[in-house]
């Protein structure tokens, strides 16, 4: 859900923000179906030993994507930053948020964003080449 919210609120950071939203959506859907399958398998267990065995096996399968993401996340980020170092050199910036916890006096309108202008220029150049 956090990935889906981030992709919608920061669409300008993605070339295809719909794909980032879809990745989060499919992860939510897969978690829902994994929960249903776990529930049905647990209900069909005949004794406690089978129940524990099935539950452990299903949890390993359910957490496989998280384990893969955890081990590959740092390398993926390094590859992206190395390939597009100039594009992201000023990317870290304080931004507004839709969170209700951050409303109030400190939530001011942002100044013109140099990065957004740079991204728009890059997209215009790319579209002109295509």
Give a structural overview.
It is a single chain. This protein is mostly helical. The protein folds into two domains: 1-75, no CATH class; 84-130, no CATH class. Helix content is 67%, strand content 0%. The protein has helices at 2-9, 17-44, 48-62, 64-83, 114-129. α1 (2-9) packs antiparallel against α2 (17-44).
Please describe the structure with a list of short key phrases separated by commas or semicolons:
130 residues, 5 helices, 0% strand
Estimate percent helicity.
Answer: 55-70%
Query: Please, how many helices?
Result: 5
Low-confidence stretches: none
Largest sheet composition: none
Overall pLDDT level: 76
Shape: elongated
User: What is the string of helix and strand elements?
Assistant: HHHHH
Q: Find the count of extended strands (DSSP E, 2+ residues).
A: 0
N/C terminus separation: 34 Å
Radius of gyration from the alpha-carbon trace, in angstroms: 21 Å
Share of β-strand residues: under 5%
In terms of structural class, how would the helical and strand content be classed?
A: mainly alpha
């Amino acid at each position: 859900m956090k990935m889906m919210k981030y992709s919608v609120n920061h669409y300008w950071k993605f070339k295809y923000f719909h794909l980032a939203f879809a990745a989060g959506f499919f992860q939510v859907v897969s978690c829902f179906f994994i929960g249903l399958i776990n529930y049905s398998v647990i209900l069909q267990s005949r004794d406690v030993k089978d129940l524990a065995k099935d539950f452990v096996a299903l949890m390993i399968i359910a957490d496989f994507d998280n384990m893969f993401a955890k081990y590959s996340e740092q390398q993926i980020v390094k590859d992206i930053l190395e390939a597009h170092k100039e594009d992201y050199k000023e990317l870290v910036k304080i931004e507004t948020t839709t969170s209700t916890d951050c409303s109030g006096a400190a939530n001011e309108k942002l100044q013109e964003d140099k990065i957004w202008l740079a991204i728009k220029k890059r997209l215009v150049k790319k579209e002109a080449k295509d």
